[in-house]
Amino acid sequence: MAAIPTISSTFLPCRSLFGGVSRNSSPLPRFRNPKSFRIRAAKLPAGVEAPKVEPKLTAPFLGFTRTAEVWNSRACMIGIVGTFIVELILNKGILQILGVEVGKGLDLPL
């Protein structure tokens, strides 16, 4: 005898109440005549003036804005000073700390 599985009704396939299957079946209802409406903004408070001219801003070239470049240069300065401090404390260059052999020249047999 087959047992009936107990699953939620949300997992069962749905059937249309209207019998026919439409070509554009979507879960959202379609409106034949779109309604248009107008949005009205609130009035400005007393003493506040609207700007007379909209400011014209140029689009940044590939994301290079003044603020981004200032923060980038600050981070670079912090990194360079940090590198100098590490070299001063350990009495080694940064390449020697990373394990690169320096000071032996090209070591080419002539």
UniProtKB/TrEMBL annotation:
Gene Ontology, cellular component aspect: chloroplast thylakoid membrane
Organism domain of life: Eukaryota
Protein name: (wild Malaysian banana) hypothetical protein
